[in-house]
DNA sequence: TGCAAATATATGTACATACATTTAATGTTG
DNA sequence: CAACATTAAATGTATGTACATATATTTGCA
């Protein structure tokens, strides 16, 4: 398949300049990638934000994480970690206990069932890593440019 | 201010490779840009998807658009245009009338009030075009790489 | 013509986001 | 130590997303 330029994808042939085009292209491509990932997750009955939180908890395991720690590590800082943990708790992939040393905080831990889910997903998700069409040099250029955007 | 690498932003110092890092960086940066835009829109009491639909309608004006046309032109193809039009209609920025030549379809038109809103926003939104930290060459590289990702 | 398939939009439900507010526990300070 | 501020998490409300289904209209064709 040939490269589909962003102009064709959204049927708006004219952009004011390369910057406006880049902005729209970036948001569009990120959404496209997230949809690819969400589709891969569907068979595991889990969403992308839920998966991201599970991975953070696995990184901490066997230490617990608090909601604050999850928010710090999450890609989208403003999202509502508390309610995503609700869903994971309902599926028994995490546990919540009051933190003994600070009773305002909550210790969140991944369960064996959660660890087992991530193991099953590791094999599958790696296949869809999304940027496989790029050369290594292009991937490096991309990272440099993206970091610069957020200056 | 100095460049904040993605490793520092999300406090996960190790990525498997440049591809995994690029994927996370891309999603993170797109979300960051969208939040910047949403903040600029807040004072106008409008959301990003609502703004995007209004711009499409201005592009068609004075011809009407159907829901199908909006979906074709929208960045996120799967989103629910019908309900976003609901919100814009409630604010009197658009009108909905049954299409005379095809009574299944709905003619959606931007109102004078909607056009006036966009005019007020044009000045403000242009200031936050987001990629202004890049050189022209970097913006071009970015567009080339993003198009290639979606191959 | 009549009836099934296709089309255009709307609606239902579950989940997530964005922002403000609430509740409870802990710190601070006069 | 009591009053007030701060912190951690949860909750309320509006919006949007994702996917399935429903409703109405039009098209196609036997």
Structural overview:
With 151 residues, chain A is mainly alpha-helical. The first copy, chain A, folds into two domains: 1-42; 44-127, Winged helix-like DNA-binding domain superfamily/Winged helix DNA-binding domain (Arc Repressor Mutant, subunit A). Helices cover 58% and strands 7% of the residues of chain A. The first copy, chain A, has a two-stranded antiparallel ribbon with strand order 1-2. In chain A, a hairpin with a 7-residue loop joins β1 and β2. In chain A, α3 (48-60) packs across α5. The longest helix of chain A is centred in the first third of the chain and has 25 residues, at 18-42. The relative contact order of chain A is 0.11. The mean pLDDT of chain A is 88. At the A-B interface, α2 and α7 of A face α2 and α7 of B. Chain B binds a DNA duplex (30 and 30 nucleotides) through residues 35, 38, 42, 47-50, 66-68, 76, 78-84, 86-87, 99, 102-106.
């Amino acid at each position: 398949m040939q490269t589909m330029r962003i102009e064709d994808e959204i049927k708006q042939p004219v952009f004011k300049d390369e910057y406006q085009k880049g902005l729209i292209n970036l948001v569009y491509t990120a959404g496209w990638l997230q949809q690819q990932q969400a589709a891969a997750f569907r068979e595991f009955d889990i969403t992308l934000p839920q998966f991201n939180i599970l991975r953070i908890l696995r990184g901490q395991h066997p230490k617990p994480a608090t909601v604050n720690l999850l928010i710090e590590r999450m890609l989208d800082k403003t999202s509502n970690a508390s309610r995503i943990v609700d869903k994971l708790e309902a599926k028994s992939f995490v546990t919540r206990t009051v933190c003994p040393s600070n009773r305002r905080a909550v210790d969140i831990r991944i369960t064996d069932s959660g660890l087992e889910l991530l193991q099953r997903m590791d094999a599958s998700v790696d296949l869809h890593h999304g940027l496989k069409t790029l050369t290594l040099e292009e991937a490096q250029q991309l990272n440099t440019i993206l970091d610069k955007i957020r200056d």
